[in-house]
Amino acid sequence: MLPKFAGLADPIRDWRNRTLQSTQFQRFARRNLFTRWMARRRARQLFDLCAGFVYSQVLDACVSLNLFEALADGPKTRAALADQAAMSPDRFEVLLRSAIALKLLEARGADRVALGIHGAALLANPGVSNMIRHHRLFYADVQDPVSLFRNPTSDTQLAALWDYSTPPEQLDQQVIAQRAHYTQLMSSTQTVVAEQIVDCAPLSSVSHLLDVGGSDGTFLRLVGESHPSLKLALFDLPVVVEQAKERFEAAGYADRVTYWPGDMHTDRLPSGPDAISLVRVLHDHNDDEALALLKNCHQALPRNGRLILAEPMGLERHGDPAADTYFGFYFRAMGRGRCRTAAENRLMLESAGFQKVVEVRTAMPFLARVLVASV
User: Fold this and answer.
1) Residues 206 and 287 in one domain
2) Which among 110, 252, 282, 288 is most buried, taking Cβ atoms within 10 Å?
3) Residues 119 and 186: beta-carbon distance below 8 Å
């Protein structure tokens, strides 16, 4: 809900916009001692918006060439890195300087290069590097953004990865390989999100947790490590459950997990667990499917049971670059789903019959926010 009298600021914002459109004001702001710092900052922000696509390609090149891994043990010479990249020194120098400017790498003296602050952080989060490689499909889908929003998206690169309902024997080898890579990608990126949920979600009072749409079980395995006495259950499509079984057995969790193969949209969820988790699941579906899924969860839970909903959520008024921009385009390329605000998710949970919906703070809310709803 907007604050009272919020509309009174609109005339001020309109005046601001008219002023910023004036070339005379822009010239004045650049020259004035008291305003030129702001003019420089705003101009740089606008330039970064225009040049962002180049920055992302520098990042892609560094990941593709394994430059961060090459520097994990310490600095190397420019010549050694150029040899590894199989590039001439003069051409490699352009990429090198670009990466240094973006703080992916760092110059050490005249001839050596080391990891920059962003490059070092990437090594701690392998899921991010996997996502960067995956972005090549995403780039192909958003190269014409106007067409992406005007036309149906059933033939996009990302849409082909989402449909797990088609049996593997009906797919060609390229799609099977891409889908396997996508599953691995979701698993690697799920780890950071799952750690936040485990750190903040009220699981100590839960005895039996059912993870719906849990894919290969990354979230459940982390929950199991933190809560050894908690009974675990996984519900997903049959082909996905079979893949998860192998991972659980390899991790020594075979005796702790109950498997429920099925379709969350057409099959009733099993009763028995006193908590259900939906981790990065609801935003994959359109509103009617999402509401039906929440009702299915509500029906399966006992009295005083709880639902843990965790995923990126948009900001009501100002928007969020991660949830509203990145995931907004991502889901459009997927051809389904959307990133809802916390308020929209709260209303949907209440419409499904849940009560006492509260938000639990996470360490990195731009990656995931958590709502806990009671029956």
Assistant:
1) yes
2) 282
3) no
